[in-house]
């Protein structure tokens, strides 16, 4: 590899690390917004409305693909649910626990790829699934519980978000014949519309408060978070286009490190022996999946399912 190629690879890897850092640290601004009266559902809606507006300013004809390919509505729902669940979970739950449960991609992918992509599970993929399943059993099993079941709403949100993320990844592969811009628009709409709809239902039922009146105390965080997501996604698009899919997937696992280190340092998570052991098995399964050649992942598009793309 020439010196120029080496610099390009390092720059691409650095760009992906920036994206992982933005999302690994995203729990903190979401909690700052919640402390100022902005529910994570409203925060998610604001972020994706800003992203949607930016896309339509530069690509005003992006709507055409949605009319031409109705199946993109499934992608819209899956990606919207991914964002809704993850952002809500890291705001109200133990950050490390949430991120680990979210990263059960090997488990959900094996279960979904067979009926949706007609990809029969191999012995290797089943082994990864069992490894991830063993990890989640250890993470969920508490001394006071008879069975390893989710113990909080954040656990359920994290599991639902991870399942939706795997479904989004598979739908992106299934719908790879559709225009890329249309897929991005579908994911933006999913994040904006689903979060807004669920927030409105929550308001009607009295469990979600309306956002406070606009003020610098929370608008600063909302705008900064929106811009950080957009910058992180630009970095993602740059890096993923210049590195292999497996290399991209490996670097993306650094999000777990950023989230874990920052949340423990700031008192938003507690690392127990059970979390270390179970989380290690989950990450090992994800690492094995990233290094494997028996899948055809679409990491850049999949990450865009819960990150604003450009």
Descriptive notes:
It is a single chain. With 310 residues, this protein is an all-alpha fold. The protein is 75% helix and 0% strand. The protein is built from 15 helices and no strands. α1 packs across α13. About 4% of the residues have low confidence.
Keywords:
310 residues, 15 helices
For the secondary structure, the number of strands is 0
Q: How would you characterize the largest beta sheet?
A: none
Approximately how much beta-strand content do the residues carry? under 5%
Regions with little confidence, pLDDT below 50 for 5+ residues? 295-305
Cα distance spanning the termini: 30 Å
By DSSP (H or I, 4+ residues per run), the number of helices equals 15
Helix residue percentage: over 70%
Order of helices and strands: HHHHHHHHHHHHHHH
Structural class based on helices, strands and sheet pairing: mainly alpha
Question: What is the residue-averaged pLDDT?
Answer: 85
Cα-based radius of gyration, to the nearest Å: 19 Å
> What form results from the Cα inertia axes?
globular
Give a brief description.
With 310 residues, this protein is mostly helical. The protein has helices at 3-24, 27-35, 40-58, 64-68, 72-92, 95-102, 105-117, 123-140, 153-174, 180-204, 216-240, 245-252, 254-265, 273-291, 299-304.
Strand-helix topology:
Elements: H1 3-24, H2 27-35, H3 40-58, H4 64-68, H5 72-92, H6 95-102, H7 105-117, H8 123-140, H9 153-174, H10 180-204, H11 216-240, H12 245-252, H13 254-265, H14 273-291, H15 299-304
């Amino acid at each position: 590899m020439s010196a120029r190629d080496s610099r390009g690879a390092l720059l691409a890897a650095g760009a992906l690390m920036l994206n992982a850092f933005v999302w690994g640290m995203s729990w903190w601004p979401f909690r700052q917004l919640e402390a100022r009266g902005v529910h994570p559902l409203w925060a998610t809606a604001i972020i994706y409305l800003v992203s949607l507006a930016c896309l339509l300013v530069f690509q005003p004809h992006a709507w055409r693909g949605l009319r031409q390919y109705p199946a993109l509505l499934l992608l819209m729902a899956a990606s919207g649910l991914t964002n809704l669940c993850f952002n809500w979970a890291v705001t109200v739950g133990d950050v490390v626990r949430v991120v680990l449960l979210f990263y059960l991609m090997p488990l959900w992918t094996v279960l979904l790829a067979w009926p949706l992509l007609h990809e029969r599970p191999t012995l290797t993929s089943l082994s990864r699934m069992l490894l991830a399943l063993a990890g989640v059993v250890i993470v969920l099993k508490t001394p006071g519980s008879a069975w390893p079941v989710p113990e909080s709403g954040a656990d359920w949100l994290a599991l639902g978000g991870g399942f939706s993320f795997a479904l989004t990844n598979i739908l992106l592969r299934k719908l790879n014949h559709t225009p890329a811009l249309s897929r991005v628009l579908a994911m933006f709409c999913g994040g904006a519309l689903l979060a807004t709809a669920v927030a409105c239902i929550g308001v009607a039922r009295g469990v979600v408060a309306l956002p406070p009146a606009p003020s610098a105390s929370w608008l600063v965080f909302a705008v900064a978070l929106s811009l950080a997501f957009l910058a992180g996604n630009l970095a993602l698009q740059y890096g993923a286009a210049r590195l292999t899919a497996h290399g991209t997937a490996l670097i993306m696992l650094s999000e777990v490190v950023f989230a874990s280190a920052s949340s423990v340092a700031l008192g938003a998570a507690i690392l127990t022996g059970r979390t270390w052991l179970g989380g290690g098995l989950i990450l090992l399964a994800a690492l094995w999946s990233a290094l494997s050649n028996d899948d055809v992942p679409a990491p850049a598009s999949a990450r865009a399912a819960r990150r604003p793309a450009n």
